[in-house]
Amino acid sequence: MSRILIAEADPESLSAKAAQARKAGHEVFVAHDGLEALDLSAEVNPEIVLLDGLLPLLSGNEVAELLRTAPQYAGLRGAKVIVMTGEPDPAPEGGRETSRSERRQRSPIIRAERPEGGERVWTLGMRPA
To answer: For 61-114, what is each residue's pLDDT tens digit?
Structure first.
């Protein structure tokens, strides 16, 4: 199976994601912030990197960008990098905030970005209902 690095700020979410990946037979490494995710990426050379978009110290997007572009991470260019977030879309100006039940009813989407270097970053977000 694959070597997976999971970087998640929420301990319960991290534990659940890691348990699911291990149950599927993957070798799992965990990080609690963006800097730890970068250090661990260089150390274990994961094939898949799952990043919380709201990591402390460096956000998931900042970590993904460094993994794609920084010379010290050139060996990780083939890794699949996924940035996840559970944050709701901001309310429209003058609109009301979205309720928790409305947020749960949204379906997940994945957006692929292909920057100039050709690598692909997958971003998991929520599609408006």
So the answer is: 999 999 988 888 888 888 999 998 765 555 556 555 555 444 434 434 344 444
Amino acid at 28: V
Q: In what order do the strands lie in the sheet with 107-113?
A: 27-31, 3-7, 48-52, 80-84, 121-127, 107-113
Instruction: Compute CA distances 67 → 18, 23, 82, 99, 129, whole Å.
Output: 21, 27, 11, 35, 32
Q: Which of 59, 36, 37 is nearest to 48 (CA)?
A: 37
**Alpha-carbon span 43 to 12, nearest angstrom:** 24
- What is the pLDDT, as a whole number, of residue 129? 39
Given a contact cutoff of 8 angstroms between Cβ atoms, the answer to whether 82 and 52 are in contact is no
What phi, psi does 32 have (nearest 5°)? Answer: -110, -10
CA atoms within 13 A on the CB side of 113: 14
Above 70 in pLDDT, residue 128? Answer: no
Report yes or no: 108 and 127 within 8 Å, Cβ to Cβ.
yes
